[in-house]
Fold:
Amino acid sequence: MIAEPLEFEKPIVNLETQLAELRDRAADSDIDMQSEMKRIEDKLTKTKTEIYRNLSPWQRVQIARHVQRPFMLDYVEHSFDDFLELHGDRHIGDDEAMPCGFARIEGRKVVVIGHQKGRDTKENLRRNFGSAHPEGYRKALRLMRMAEKFRLPIVTLIDTPGAYPGIGAEERNIAEAIAFNLREMMTLTVPVVAVVIGEGGSGGALGIGVADRVLMMENAYYSVISPEGCAAILWKDRKYATEAASALKLSAADLKAIDIIDEVIPEPMGGAHHDHVGSANNLKKAVLSHLAELDHIPESDLLDQRYAKYRKFGEFRERGRKS
Structure:
């Protein structure tokens, strides 16, 4: 049975319920139900394939927000070893929406930075729903500079609806904190790999997203604005979020097609929340592959390539009209 199914997954849930009832009935009686169970199993497999191979952008947004999806610290637990979290920005305090620290990945020392959400009300309040304050971004930059000092590569795990827009964050200059990170990350002399693991919302994502390689989990999304926010602006009603999600081209496949990201990391069928360990193994493999590639790039070339990568964003060509 699917835990907390999404609306579009209900046909799968119905078939799984029928299959479970048949198995229970067969166990309690001498009636042979193998043929009927096989028919439902085949239909279940076909239904899953049809649904999950043809997900719309809005359905992928729903999966990216699933409360049981692996969060940053879940990936740290399953993909990394010896994680040692460091706290505080040395100005205001600590921000638990942005855990940062040292870790190892296959024995290799790295600095890991990311957004962390919560699965219940208490944890979400502690983590501020994954929306970091200015001190979170300043803490992240402090760790990046430590990584540069000790010549350690940086891995960032992005999962936020956006930076926190509250009065306190504005008073402590959230815009400046993010803008400063954008500039400083462009000049880091160590390799940086960023992975969008869930939501990649606006400047909140970009604040730790300037990297030599940007990867995305298959059902994550990365966008300048949420579908609901876009719908509220363009259609004056959030109910058009489905249309907005399609128009924004925010899915991993769409962004890979226009070279905004470098790789789509596959997820288990149905989404990463169905298999945390399998998803973490896929992420680990992808990160190690890109770090190995970046190892062979001289520092000056690394900076030039990073600059060129972001400089070309926004370029477009018009197709000539046929006469």
